[in-house]
């Protein structure tokens, strides 16, 4: 019986508290919302810059490749390959999934026009003094220069 009185008293207190609070009016009038979104190249490139650097110089510890100075055709081709599934990397596939061709060309053209700031090739050459003529060197087989229009980018570029 004490329990019943306790519960009854609790419900009564709750009812009194609800009566003390004034009801708040809710508007049912629709509010106009702007659907215009600014869409600039700078905004589009923010996603790229998160991994590839602000000007496409490459990411942290060279994990993400540089994009600056690579041919627009090569960059566009790589974006298309991520999009159509012939090249696999989950983050890139996600990023390009719904991009149209014009968007991908715009991004590729931007990065192709950027200058890669790196040390001159001469400064990066290994010291080969003491290496016998004809012996293999670490750079053998690497693409150091690429012909114009080639779909293969150089591994190192001359400034």
Q: How would you characterize the overall build of this protein?
A:
- With 159 residues, this protein is mainly α.
- It has a domain at 41-118: Cytochrome Bc1 Complex, Chain D, domain 2, CATH 1.10.760.10.
- It has 6 helices and no strands.
- The longest helix is centred in the N-terminal third of the chain and has 19 residues, at 2-20.
- It is elongated and about 95 Å long.
- Residues 1-5 have low confidence and may be disordered.
SS field, number of helical segments: 6
Q: Got a strand count? A: 0
Instruction: Estimate the helix proportion, in percent.
Output: 40-55%
**CATH level-1 class of the domain at 41-118:** Mainly Alpha
The averaged pLDDT comes out at 77
Domain Cytochrome c: 18-115
Organism: Frateuria aurantia (strain ATCC 33424 / DSM 6220 / KCTC 2777 / LMG 1558 / NBRC 3245 / NCIMB 13370) (Acetobacter aurantius)
GO molecular function: electron transfer activity; heme binding; metal ion binding
Protein name: Cytochrome c553
Note the topology.
Blueprint: H1 2-20, H2 41-52, H3 72-84, H4 90-96, H5 101-113, H6 121-124
Quick structural summary:
With 159 residues, this protein is an all-alpha fold. It is 43% helix and 0% strand. It contains 6 helices and no strands.
Attribute tags:
159 residues, mainly alpha, Cytochrome Bc1 Complex, Chain D, domain 2, 43% helix, 0% strand, elongated, iron, Cyt_c-like_dom_sf, Cytochrome c553, Cyt_c-like_dom, heme
